[in-house]
């Protein structure tokens, strides 16, 4: 039997041992790169670790590729045994509402975190962000709760269209209010700097939000449910403002002496115009839908 065939047929404890050795090899390569000692034997050992870590990484990728489909099948089979998880798998609208509630809780917590920073640092900008995120969170929660009311399906659909239109109006008003804080931040040419490694965590969170918001925004276009569209649009507005906040914080952290007011003005203006346009689109789209409903 060939060596590659033997690797494919490894099971149980042997596979676990191989994975552990692979992780150790990768860890050794990282440690060797970090220490970077001039000793000859250390240099030789480093190259050995580099070679082993490359092979180990290939093997780990192979294990993941083989394992993920099996894991997905097993999880799907388990989830179908319960009503809640089965709906999460097969009902996009139900999944949107369920994850929307989770997002609502996270958004409220993040808004309170921004508010705490605003109080501690006496920052108007962080106070404006906290207020914006908090209002968006309650707007998202209101869309989810109001969209469930109505006795008949026709009544529910009409109510969801009205909620969608109201959401568009509130996005416009809220963003116009935020634009005043953006102007103040640009005029003062300063923003609050995150402490320590918090800026990296905030960057990861902002990029995650914008990627997921764009993905779900495109996916929601295929849905006829205005409640789903409203939630996705609000999530996109939330993510867009997070990108603006991240830019100002990164400039403050890595270029504190530079004049970045022009960059912040361009990005801030683009974000505000984009969200206002999104709100206007929601208003117009809902108004047309209500007229068509008669």
From TrEMBL:
Keywords: Membrane, Transmembrane, Transmembrane helix
Name under which the protein is recorded: Uncharacterized protein
Organism in which the protein naturally occurs: Candidatus Borkfalkia ceftriaxoniphila
The keyword Transmembrane is annotated on this UniProt entry: yes
Organism phylogeny: Bacteria, Bacillati, Bacillota, Clostridia, Christensenellales
Superkingdom of source: Bacteria
Record field: transmembrane: 47-71, 92-113, 125-145, 166-188, 194-215, 236-254, 260-284
């Amino acid at each position: 039997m060939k060596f590659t065939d033997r690797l494919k047929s490894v099971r149980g404890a042997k596979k676990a041992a191989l994975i552990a050795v692979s992780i150790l090899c990768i860890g050794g390569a990282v440690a060797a790169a970090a220490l970077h000692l001039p000793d000859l034997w250390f240099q030789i050992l480093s190259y050995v670790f580099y070679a082993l870590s490359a092979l180990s990484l290939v093997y780990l990728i192979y294990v993941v590729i083989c394992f993920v489909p099996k894991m997905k099948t097993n999880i799907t089979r388990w989830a179908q045994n319960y009503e809640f998880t089965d709906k999460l798998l097969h009902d996009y609208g139900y999944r949107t509402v369920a994850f929307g509630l989770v997002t609502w809780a996270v958004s409220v917590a993040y808004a309170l975190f921004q508010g705490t920073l605003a109080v501690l640092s006496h920052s108007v900008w962080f106070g404006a962000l906290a207020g914006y995120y908090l209002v968006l969170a309650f707007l998202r929660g209101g869309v989810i709760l109001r969209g469930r009311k109505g006795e008949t399906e026709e009544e529910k659909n009409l109510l969801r269209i009205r909620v969608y239109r109201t959401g568009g109006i509130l996005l416009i008003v809220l963003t116009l209010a935020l634009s005043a804080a953006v102007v103040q931040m640009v005029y003062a040419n300063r923003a609050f700097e995150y402490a320590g490694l918090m800026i990296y965590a905030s960057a990861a969170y902002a990029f995650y939000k914008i990627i997921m918001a764009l993905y779900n925004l495109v996916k929601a276009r295929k849905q006829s449910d205005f409640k789903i569209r409203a939630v996705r649009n609000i999530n996109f507005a939330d993510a867009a403002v997070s990108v603006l906040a991240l830019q100002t914080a990164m400039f403050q952290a890595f270029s504190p002496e530079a004049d970045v007011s022009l960059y912040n003005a361009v990005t801030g203006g683009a974000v505000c115009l984009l969200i206002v346009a999104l709100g206007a689109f929601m208003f117009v789209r809902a108004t047309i839908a209500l007229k068509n409903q008669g």
